[in-house]
Amino acid sequence: MAKNNNSYSCNACGAVFTKWSGRCDGCGEWNTIVEDTPLSAGPAKKSLGSVRGQGIILTDLSTEETPPPRTHCGLGELDRVLGGGLVPGSAILVGGDPGIGKSTLLLQAAARFAEAGLDTVYVSGEEASAQVRMRAQRLGLTKAPVRLAAETNLRNILTTLDAERPQLAIIDSIQTMWADNVDSAPGSVSQVRAAAHELTTFAKTRGISVILVGHVTKEGQIAGPRVVEHMVDTVLYFEGERGHQFRILRAVKNRFGPADEIGVFEMTGGGLSEVGNPSALFLSDREEPAPGSVVFAGIEGTRPVLVEFQALVAPSPHSQPRRSVLGWDGGRLAMILAVLEARCGIPFAGLDVYLNVAGGMKISEPAADLAVAAALLSAREDAALPKDTVVFGEISLSGALRPVGQTENRLKEAMKLGFNAAIAPSRSKTGTADGMRVQKMTDLPGFVGEIFGAG
SS3 of 21, please? Predict the structure, then answer.
């Protein structure tokens, strides 16, 4: 005989029965038992079927809740990127190239958080405890109240954290963790997904903040499934070139603060030191005005940052000219070159083009279009722009210059560093930029004709 999977429940008390009856045995009410509608259609093994779960409490949007308390570690740049400090029960993923300084930064952060009063546990899956102690000795952190362990078994780690109940746990790294219920090697997609899910769920249910370290692939993405980035609350990327001493911590996702915020650090013999004024640092090695050098006033998150674009245009010995870009989007460079040729009549055919952002910085906002065009024209015409001038503005495909946001903050940052002139789109809202000469341009052909005497 066919099995009856129908379910019945009482409208008065919610009691569940396997068959219908006229009177509820739970509350004694009559004619309150009705047949439950299945949650989903299809076979029971492939769908939810007719078995119902427990109801959840719903609230409206006007529910008042106090903002989560935050703990400051004392590293102002790290606190800025986190959105103002560490939130209890949050899951944070930190990615970066091998050797960029992730373990150094997190060991320093662990020491600062522990000194601020947080019970901190540092679990290393890549290095032995002795190696971590040697790094702590080099950084002068041996007296910090941080508890250390070297383990890769996820079950052992969760058992220990559940027993010790620290307030902050740092896992270095998620690629070395392995769960014994997953039949694959550590570092595989299945293991990384399972470990990240277990650690994130553990952080939410126990109220423990968890920081995960993730490796980065050749494409610059965190190794493993992208679903790991969706599981956590905050995703931070540690950027920088090994040839430069600057390191940039960028928030690409943050549920507790602004995204695209950056923190700037300098790699020294004693670890990573924070940089309070990154604009001065990025422009510290700038020489006298030279062709192809243009200062761009940008915005990274909520912070105005001045960086130098460097361009070089030279005759190409090859049939296919080179287009080399560091720190900017190569596709956008191709667009700027096409607009210069189509709207201004300035060809770059047969010329190699090299573009670089000084200091290892990576710029992504469209407001850098005009600065890039100025650097390319300056290199091509061998004419340097004045040393005290900053440039910013977005270029459309028609050649028009479009205004960008936070113009006043860009100009204030430029004035703070001694710049007294700016080139910007005509519709920019400059605000009260007293002492700053703002030269407004309507379109790219007008900019080329007025600045470089061509058009």
Answer: coil
User: Which residues does 67 contact at the CB level (< 8 Å), separation at least 6?
Assistant: none
**DSSP summary character for residue 349:** T
* Higher pLDDT pick, 3 / 339: 339
Dig out the tokens for 449 from the structure. Answer: 């004709």
Largest Cα–Cα separation, the chain: 95
List, as residue ranges, the binding site for ATP: 96-103
Q: What is the pLDDT of residues 84-126, one digit of tens each?
A: 999 999 999 999 888 888 999 999 999 999 999 999 999 999 9
Binding-site residues, in ranges, read: 96-103
Q: Which single residue is written with the structure tokens 């150094």?
A: 104
Rounded to whole angstroms, how far apart are CA atoms 165 and 169? 9
Of how many residues is the chain composed? 455
Q: Does residue 1 have a pLDDT over 50?
A: no
CA-based nearest residue to 408, from 416, 396, 399, 400: 416
Q: Cβ neighbours of residue 113 under 8 Å, at least 6 residues apart?
A: 71, 73, 86, 120, 168
In whole angstroms, give the CA distance from residue 353 to residue 292.
11
Task: Answer yes or no: are the C-beta atoms of 383 and 346 closer than 8 Å.
Answer: no
**Alpha carbons 5 and 23: distance in angstroms, whole number:** 21
In DSSP terms, 149 is beta-bridged to 123
Question: Which of the two residues, 335 and 48, has the higher pLDDT score?
Answer: 335
Q: What is the pLDDT of residue 253?
A: 93
Element (H, E) at 293: strand 293-300
- Structure tokens that stand for 298 in this block: 């940008």
Nearest to 340 by CA among 414, 222, 445, 186: 445
The whole-angstrom separation of Cα 439 and Cα 264 is 31
Regarding pTM above 0.85, the answer is no
Q: 45: which 2 tokens?
A: 């093994």
Give the distance, in angstroms, between the CA of residue 293 and the centroid of all CA atoms in the same chain: 28
CA 420 – CA 438 distance, rounded (Å): 9
How many H helices and E strands in the chain? Answer: 11, 21
Residue 455 binned pLDDT confidence (cut-offs 50, 70, 90): very low
Amino acid letter, 136: A
Q: Does the CA dihedral 124-127-130-136 come out positive or negative?
A: negative
Residues near 438 by Cβ (< 8 Å), separated by ≥ 6?
A: 411, 421, 422, 423, 424, 428, 430
